[in-house]
Amino acid sequence: MKSKHLKFGISYVNTNSWLHALNGITKFVLFMAWVTMVLLTFDLRVICGLIVIGLLLLKATKIPFAVYKPLLIGTAVVLLMNALFMFLIAPQQGTDYMHSTTVLVHLFGPYNITLETVFYLLTVTLKYFSMFPIALVFVFTTHPTEFSASLNKLGVPYRIAYAVSLTLRYLPEVMKDFTNIMHAQQARGVDISKKAPVMTRIRNVAKILGPLIFSSLDRADVISNAMTLRGFGRNKKRTWYSLKPMTKNDIIALAIIVTVLGLGILHRYQSTTLFWYPFH
After folding, report:
1. Are residues 208 and 181 in contact, defined by beta-carbon separation less than 8 angstroms?
2. Lower CB density within 10 Å: C or N end of the chain?
3. 3-class SS at 241?
4. Are 60 and 19 within 8 A, CB to CB?
5. Burial category of 133 from C-beta neighbours within 10 Å (exposed 0-12, middle 13-18, buried 19 and up)
């Protein structure tokens, strides 16, 4: 019987794509501008455009689809559940925003499936999903140390920037520890399979999380002692080995990002309604 190995597929992978060649500052600015655009707009046309561009950028990373397929499925399930809960909590929210009511299916009481509600839930769900591709692009193409150097270059204190680097760098290690501890506990008869009752699985998972927490704390203590012995934090400034210089491509990319973000902000404040709704 083969055991299933958990794979941590959300980490830096160097495929030598053109996105990998960009400066960490450029990719960080792209990510923040993307998030800003998503938070500002409720225009489905803009949101769909962001999704298409994001998926094209994700394809340009040359990362195999199998690496992030589980996360894609998990994200889709969570977003669909979120849409369901939004409908159960506020079934009339779509009609309130669109200022019209077109009943498609009458269920019971105040629960009616209207065209406005479907459009509202579709817009909000795709709005959340539009941040998924760019987040993967940023993680897959930006080395943790490079990202920290970029944060420091943008004015973030290097102690905080280095803490971010350590967090991103050791997340895969934590996942490996989790897998090893899980296999060790299963060898001792701890059952966390679907055959075990739910409460039993919860108790058995706690037997895995305990050692995982202590091993993570032990690793953090070792790293902290090593950094202290090397005098980390003594100087006010530090240099970065992995800091890339800005290139012509970075300047062009930053100009495009700032221009598109500016147009997005202008479009948002010129809109007379919060939601774009074509069925009035």
Report:
1. yes
2. N
3. coil
4. yes
5. buried
pLDDT digits (tens, 9 = 90+) for 235-249: 777 777 777 778 899
pLDDT digits (tens, 9 = 90+) for 72-108: 888 899 999 999 998 888 888 888 888 888 888 887 7
The CA distance from 107 to 138, in Å, is: 43
Give the CA radius of gyration of the chain. Answer: 23
pLDDT band at 10 (very low <50, low <70, confident <90, very high): low
Angle at 72 between CA 201 and CA 58, to 5 degrees: 145
Count how many residues are written for the chain: 280
**Per DSSP, which regions of 109-145 are E strands?**
111-114
User: Residues near 63 by Cβ (< 8 Å), separated by ≥ 6?
Assistant: 13, 15, 136, 140
Which residues, including other chains, have CB under 8 Å from residue 79's CB and lie 6 or more apart?
125, 128, 129
For tokens 């290139």, name the residue.
247
Which residue's structure tokens are 């509600």?
A: 117
User: Is the Cβ–Cβ distance between 120 and 45 less than 8 Å?
Assistant: no
- Cα angle 270, 53, 275; round to 5: 30
Whole-angstrom Cα distance, residue 100 to residue 104?
A: 13
